[in-house]
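User: Teach me something about this protein's shape.
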Amino acid sequence: MPRRRRPVATTRLWEVLDAQLGTLEPSRQRPLDVVDLGGGTGGLALDVARRGHHVTVVDPSADALASLERRLADEQLAASVVGRQGDAADLVGLLGEGSVDVVLCHRVLEVVDDPAAVLRHAAAVLRPGGALSLLVAQRHAVVLGQALAGHVAAARQTWADPRRLDLASVTALVEDAGFGVVESDGIGAVSELVPESAVEGAAASADLLALEAALGRDPAFRALAAHVHVFARLTPEDVLSGF
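Assistant: First, the predicted structure itself:
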C-alpha cells in the first residue's frame, strides 16, 4: 500500500525547519543535539534524526513514548533518538544546563498553564547561541473556525481569552525568555482551508505548497494561519531581524 502523502501544512513546516537547522550546522561541524519537548510518538523527531542529528524526545505520556520506541525499532533509528518521560520543568534534571543546541517546542504553549515558564526551562538547557523552534496555534484561526462552524459564542470566548496566543504574544514571550526572533512563518495559511479532494494530484499539491511558501510571511495571511512558527536564537548578537 503506498504511503499517504503528507498534509501540505506539515510539509511546509518541515521545509521551514529544515532550512533553519541548516543555518546552525556549519557553526557546529557535528550533529546537533536536539530536544523535542512534548514530542509524543516522534513524528518530528524522526525527521530530524534522518538528517543526522541526535534527538531526545521529552514527553509526559508513557504510552506515547512506548509508541516512539516501536517506531524507532521499525525505522532503525534507535541509535539517534531516545525518549525520556517528563515535561518542561524536568528538562534541566534530565539533560543538564547548557547541554543542547536546539529545543523543538511544537503545539505545547497553547496547552500549558505557564507558557513563560516553559520557555525559561527551554532556555536553561540551551548552549550559547542555541535555537528554539516554536509552533503555536493562533487564536485568529481558532476564532474564525469556530465562527464559520456556527459556534459564535465559543468564538467570542476564545477571542476574549488572554491565554490564547498569536504572533505578537508569542514574540513577547520569546523575547522575555531571552531569545531574539530570527524568522516567523504562518503554517496553514491557506492549505488548512482547502479540501483534500482539491489537491489529490501531485501537481495540485505542489502548487498549494508553493502558495503556502509565498504567503507564509505576508503579515495578513500569517495572522490568519492555523499555526505560527517562530525560530529564535538565545544569544542576542546571533539574532537576525526576520520581520
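Now, about its shape. The first strand starts at residue 33 and ends at 37. The CA atoms of residues 116 and 176 lie 8 Å apart. If you'd like, I can walk through any region in more detail.
User: That's plenty for now, thanks!
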